[in-house]
Amino acid sequence: MSIVTLKELLGDARQQHYGVGMFDVLDLEMTNAVIEAAESERSPVILALAEVHVHSLRELKAIGSILLEAARNSRVPVAVHYDHGMDRGNLLRVMQMGFSSVMLDASMLPYEENIRQTADIVQLAKSFGCSVEAELGHVGGCEGGCAEDGSSYTHPGQAADFIRRTGVDALAVSIGTVHGVYRAKPCLDLKRLQEITGCADVPLVLHGASGLSDEDICRCIQGGITKINIYTELVQAAGTAIFGAMEKGGGTLSYPKMMKASVNGMREKVAAKMRLFGSSGRV
C-alpha cells in the first residue's frame, strides 16, 4: 500500500471513535515488529522516529529510509511520522525524504510563539503534501520534563484559536500523562479532555500513553483521543522477551536469536495495543 498522511489515517478513526497507534522505532527490528503486527491485525498504523533519538543514531537518512521502505511495502495503510521535532532543518529534511507527517513541538514556548512557529511549519508542509501535528500545553517527562501540577495542561479555551490560526491537522494535548516510566499512578483530567474535544475540530493526540491502564486508554478514546503514542512499553516488551529467551536457553543467547526474541515480544505488544485501541480489523 502507498504511504498515507496523518490526516488521511486519522479521519476515519475520528469519525468511528477508535484510536490509531503511533509507535516510535529506532531500527529495522522495531520497524518489522510494528509492521508485522499491523498486517496480522489488519490495522492502520503510524511508524515514527522521534527527534530525541536522532542524536543517538548515526544517520537520519538511513533510519528514515528503513521506515519509508517498510511503509511502502506494507499491506496496510501506514503514516511515516517525525515525532517531537524542534529543529526546523530536521523537519525540512524528513519532508524532503518523503515522511507523510511531522510534529512540531514548540509547546515549551510562549503561546503566541508556538502559534507562529507552528503556522510556519504548516505552510512549509503543504508544499510536500505532509500533515502537521502540534502540541498545546506540555506533556512532561524525558522529552522536556516539567512538574505535572496542572499548570502545563492544555487550556480548552485556547484549542479552537490555536487550531484556527495554525491550520494543524492534529493536536497533542496535555491532560496528566508524562513521557517515560510513571513513578506514580497517573491521574488523568478527563473532564478537561471532553472540554477540549468540544472545542477542537481536528483529531486529538495522547502522548505518554505507555503505562496507562487499559481502562484509562479506553476512557481517553471515548473522550476524543484518536492518535495514541507508544514507545516505552515497546522497548520494555523487547527486554522482557530477550530475558525470557535467555532463561530458556540456560543463560546464553546468540545475537540472531536475541533479535528474533525482541521482534516477537514487540510484535505481540503492538498487536495487543491495536486490539485495545479498536483499530484491528479496520483495513
Describe, in plain words, how this protein is organized in 3D.
- Helices cover 49% and strands 15% of the residues.
- The protein is α/β, with parallel strands linked by helices.
Secondary-structure topology with pairs:
Layout: H1 6-16, E1 20-24, H2 28-41, E2 45-50, H3 51-54, H4 60-73, E3 78-85, H5 88-97, E4 101-104, H6 111-126, E5 131-136, H7 156-166, E6 170-173, H8 190-199, E7 204-206, H9 214-222, E8 225-230, H10 232-248, H11 255-277
Parallel strand pairs: 1-2, 1-8, 2-3, 3-4, 4-5, 5-6, 6-7, 7-8
Main sheet summary: 8 strands, parallel, barrel
Globular, elongated, flat, extended or rod-shaped: what is the shape? globular
Strand content: 5-15%
Number of helices: 11
As a whole number of angstroms, the C-alpha radius of gyration is 18 Å
The average pLDDT score comes to 91
Helix content: 40-55%
Structural class: alpha/beta
> Major sheet: order of its strands?
1-2-3-4-5-6-7-8
- SSE order, one letter for each helix or strand: HEHEHHEHEHEHEHEHEHH
First-residue to last-residue Cα separation? 11 Å
Secondary structure tally: strands: 8
Low-pLDDT segments: 142-148
